[in-house]
# Entry
Amino acid sequence: MAESVSTTEAGTHFLSSLDPDKARDERPAVERFIEWVGPDSLMADLQGDRVAEYARDEDGDGTALEPVRAFLAYSARMAFTEIDLVPQLHLGGTTAGLSLDSPDAYRVTIEGLAALEQQVEELKNRRPDIAGALRAAMEDKDFRENAPLDAARDEQAHLEARIREIEDQLRRAVIIDEDSKAGLANVGSTVRVRNLELEREQTFHLVSSSEVDAASGKISIESPVGSAVINHGPGDEVTVNAPSGALRLKVLEVVG
# Structure
């Protein structure tokens, strides 16, 4: 059950979770949305049709709606809303101004996007600990043979690189919903295929590279099989350029 939080309170909560620079950039769009739906109204009462109406009023500008998407995704994770209202923005082909077919688009499901946002938040929360380790290591004035300092610097470099990578993915994220796929395989689809050489069937779930879990049958759309079946539907035959050689698959079923 959603908490009794006003839109204004939820907006304050969301903006305070961001880095100061990002909060400054996203505040105008978030506050404009809050003012539009009602600053004293409860997030739990916010309905999908109101969100969709706001998106239409914004003329489908994915750049302007991106902060609202992030705010609604955060509200769903924090249980401020009863359901995830992000799909009602209908950003399937416009997030960050990128189209579904753009080579720069990072195609991802709603769940995958939420996981990325949570991951980058957790990584940023590690910054104070690493900064503390650096300060402690630097108290040893002999920098020539300071293994703790080297280790702290390496950890900081890896952390910042990963944060930049995820933030880049979030900037290029294009949310894939069922309507935008038009029955063809894409991120979030469960696909059943037949290996035409071996006459064997296989079922897998297509996900973004950040959601891969081979044990659960989740494969990346960037993998050889994923890139071969993407944008194909039942009855299509595709060729997979696998490391072991080319193999032919026939798409039998696409769900989602």
User: Anything to note?
Assistant: Residues 182-255 form a domain with the Chitinase A; domain 3 fold (CATH 3.10.50.30). Confidence is low (pLDDT under 50) at residues 92-97. The CA atoms of residues 15 and 22 lie 8 Å apart. The longest helix spans residues 147-171.
